[in-house]
Amino acid sequence: MTSDPGGPVAAEPGLVAVGLSRAFGDEVAVQDVDLEVGPGQVHALVGLNGAGKTTLMRLLLGMLRPDSGTARILGRTLTDHDPSLWRGVGHMIEMPFNYPELTARENVRVSARLHGMSRQDAGPAVEAVVDRLAFRRWADRRTATLSLGNRQRVGLACAMVHRPRLLVLDEPTNALDPSGVVLVRDLLTELAEQEGTAVLVSSHHLDEVARVAHRISVLHRGRVVGTLDPDGIDLERQFFRLVHGVDERLGLIGADGGGAS
Amino acid sequence: MNAALEVEWLKLRRSRTVAVATVVLVLGIPALVAGFMRAAVASPQSQLGVKVHAMVSGTGWAAYLGLAEQICAVALFLGVGIVVAWCFGREFTDHTLVSLYALPVSRGTVAAAKAAVVTAWAAVVSLAVLAVLLLAGPAAGVGLPDGDAARAAPKAFAVALLTAVLALTLALPASLGRGYLPAIGGLLLVVLLTQILVTLGIGAWVPYAAPALWSQTTLPVDVGPVQLALIPVTAVAVLWATLRWWQTVEVT
Predict the structure, then answer these.
(1) B15 Cβ under 8 Å from any chain A Cβ
(2) What is the residue range of B99's domain?
């Protein structure tokens, strides 16, 4: 990625989080996180398992209430309690949108209707996204009979059928075959560049996000501990330097990367 | 609300659980009632005949539909209860609840749509049970429907519908317990507690016992309009609590 359409954006940001925190009992899952995703920007969250990526996304989408901090989605705060806010948002968090008794096409149509599309508009939109994600061949099969990767494609179609202005995807390439990974990468780039969609995406795969993201934030132990340059070299080394730096400061590992004694 | 109703109706139509429950209730209840009645009419001195006679009063269609009311009061609670458990609990068990967040249709609206489509389905099933009961009359030995049948049928339908409405309250344990099994547990608990309270002599004031007691004309229990009115009041109160819970619940 070379140009960042985000940065100090003139248009209203897709998503702004300020000081978001959430704990589960004594376990702090997300702590004082600031984040912004501008229109047309792909912002990647990377981190180890349990870093807080999914919890952060859940907080941003109103699935969890923060202990402190605020989030604004498409210019409106989550505490507005106005459901119409979500017309412009698509998401896939952990589980793809899949009712196993429905066909792939029916699932996408259900998502379109629940996202506020009229019956008339939903039909063509469903067909378009079925073609874009290349599953017309099995669109009329019940999703219970599909492979995990194909259910993931259906879930992605459900997240974007209503052409959201903000898309939040938690590890969207999980279980996808290489062609599916390329498809998702192209799709995210296309949505951001051509439709100005703000995209927040999490992943474990640094190479993958480097190809598509304008910004990469590193989340570790619930905090944003730094950023990575998508055009930088040896991202893996930079990532572990950030992560180990935090652990060293916390006294969890020695300076040599070994465990604390 | 229209989108939520459309979606919930589609899910209900496609559900194997609902299809099986429909067939079992619509064919099973009339088959059971007709079989019992046939046994009572054909061999009143048999063990089954004696037991059936103890459950019914009158003869012919009044007895036949009276017996149907009693069986409906149990079978429909179980059958509709299982569908309610599936309808609400599946969003947790199948991990589909997360898809119902960040939508312009609120989760409270989705839950209300679930209650509405299950109620509509239960009303259609109750009507279908009654229709099959009427068709099965000759096979049960009570002949073709007559004036007694016309007089008894509305009450039989009312018992069926009130029972179905009560089963909707199982949406609350399905939601609080986040799955099918807590609702099934709730169903068993309701049946057990109801039996105990009926034994203690206060069954008429227990909404879950009222339809069955209302249908039992052989028992010295008076279930009046006030006790019957408690049934929809209970259902509405529990559903309101369920919708509130859906509106505010966090994912786990």
Answers:
(1) yes
(2) 2-248
Q: Using the beta-carbon criterion (under 8 Å), do A114 and B3 form an inter-chain contact?
A: yes
Give the count of alpha carbons within 13 A of A74, CB side only.
21
| Torsion angle in degrees (nearest 10) through CA of A228, A39, A219, A48 | -90
**Taking the model in full, what pTM does it have?**
0.90
What ranges make up the beta strands (E) of A26-141? 27-37, 42-46, 68-73, 76-77, 89-92
Query: Do A113 and B11 count as a contact with CB atoms less than 8 A apart?
Result: no
Identify whether the C-beta of residue B105 lies closer than 8 Å to the C-beta of residue B3: yes
Confirm if B77 and B125 have CB atoms less than 8 A apart.
Answer: no
- The tens place of each residue's pLDDT in chain A, 261 residues long, gives 545 554 444 467 889 999 999 999 999 999 999 999 999 999 999 999 989 999 999 999 999 999 999 999 998 888 766 788 899 999 999 888 899 999 999 999 999 999 999 999 999 999 999 999 989 999 999 999 999 999 999 999 999 999 999 999 999 988 888 888 999 999 999 999 999 999 999 988 888 888 899 999 999 999 999 999 888 888 889 999 999 888 888 777 665 555 443
H helices of chain A, in order, are 53-60, 104-114, 119-132, 148-160, 178-195, 206-212, 235-249
A153, A135 Cβ separation under 8 angstroms: yes
| Residue A54, CA distances (Å) to A100, A186, B73 in order | 23, 23, 46
Question: How would you list the strands of the sheet with A68-73, edge to edge?
Answer: A27-37, A15-24, A68-73, A76-77
Q: Searching chain B, which residue's CA lies closest to the CA of residue A89?
A: B102
Closest residue to A61, CB basis, from B94, B102, B105: B102
Q: Strands A68-73 and A76-77: what pairing?
A: antiparallel
The residue in chain A having the minimum alpha-carbon distance to the alpha carbon of residue B9 is: A110
Flag whether residue B252 sits within 8 Å of chain A, measured between CB atoms. Answer: no
Please report the ipTM that was assigned to this predicted complex: 0.87
How many structural domains is chain B composed of? 1
Using a CB-CB cut-off of 8 Å, the residues of chain A touching B105 are: 83, 114, 116
